[in-house]
Design brief:
This protein is α/β, with parallel strands linked by helices. Helices cover about 45% and strands about 15% of the residues. The strands form 2 sheets. Strands 1-2-3-5-7-10 form a 6-stranded mixed β-sheet, sandwiched between helices. The chain has a 4-stranded mixed β-sheet with strand order 4-6-8-9. Strand 1 and strand 2 form a beta hairpin. Helix 1 packs parallel to helix 3, helix 3 packs parallel to helix 4 and helix 3 runs antiparallel to helix 10. The relative contact order is 0.15.
């Protein structure tokens, strides 16, 4: 398959690295990139030679610095809902495919970046990684699953704090709160991620797949479609509001927004 915004690399007979390759815009997610991720992950999920999928970002600054605000800011409510649903298609593939998925967070993982990371089975971070859900500062809510998944990692009170405040969390704090499994220096990050991926790939594919299936079932991951759809609908309804227009326009214009708390 040929892509404009992502790369797929085979490092080991069973390991594939999927890299979001929009380095100039810190690997932000636009509709085209999400569509490419959906298609690529769907293919990897069906490929019996693939045992482990690693998701990462190009360059040294960002994993995924969020959704593409320039594309999002003028969306209607319906378009906003559709954008969230596309993000959910990608995140559900990461979460539910029968192969383990590792988020290799090498820099900024903000908004949709954190949401794609927490859709993976677990996260390994570089010591320069930064996480956060800054959507409220844009006049919207998280739309790619954070209202449901973040609490699985950090608990409901901390998930609420992070979503309500929009504050950023560095790698060491993220590990301390349970968001991240391992933190490694940037110089050895790729090597450590691949060592772990290869260790997993050498195990029984059938056993690992069944373990993932059961753990997802026991943690109620399976059956979240209704709740994710409710999030997408709520996300979409934020579009066209004063605060959404003001928040995203201010972001693009690099100024502080003036929120009014008005729905229209």
């Amino acid at each position: 398959m040929t892509f404009n915004n992502i790369r797929i690399e085979s490092v080991d007979p069973g390991v594939r690295i999927v890299t979001i390759a929009r380095e100039k815009v810190l690997n932000c997610l636009n509709s085209e990139t999400l569509s490419e991720l959906r298609d690529a992950l769907g293919e990897l999920a069906r490929d019996e030679s693939v045992r482990v999928v690693v998701l990462t970002g190009a360059g040294e600054k960002a994993f995924i610095a969020g959704a593409d605000i320039a594309e999002m800011k003028d969306k209607s409510a319906g378009e906003g809902t559709g954008f969230a649903q596309l993000g959910h298609e990608v995140s559900k593939l990461l979460e539910l495919m029968p192969k383990p998925t590792i988020a290799a967070v090498n820099g900024f993982a903000l908004g949709g970046g954190t949401e794609m990371a927490i859709a993976c089975d677990f996260i390994v971070a570089s010591d320069v990684a930064v996480f956060g859900q800054p959507e409220v500062g844009l006049g919207i809510i998280p739309g790619f699953g954070a209202t449901l998944r973040l609490a699985k990692f950090v608990g409901f009170p901390m998930a609420k704090e992070l979503i309500f405040s929009g504050r950023r969390v560095k790698a060491a704090e993220a590990q301390a709160m349970g968001l991240v499994n391992h933190v490694y220096p940037a110089a050895e990050f790729r090597t450590k991620v691949l060592e772990l991926a290869q260790q997993i790939s050498q195990q029984s594919r059938t056993a690992v797949s069944k373990a993932k299936e059961l753990m997802n079932e026991f943690s109620e991951v399976v059956g979240l479609n209704y709740k994710l759809d409710a999030e997408a609908q709520a996300f979409g309804r934020m579009f066209g509001s004063h605060d959404q227009r003001e928040g995203m326009t201010a972001f693009v214009e690099k100024r502080k927004p003036t929120f009014q708390g008005l729905t229209r």
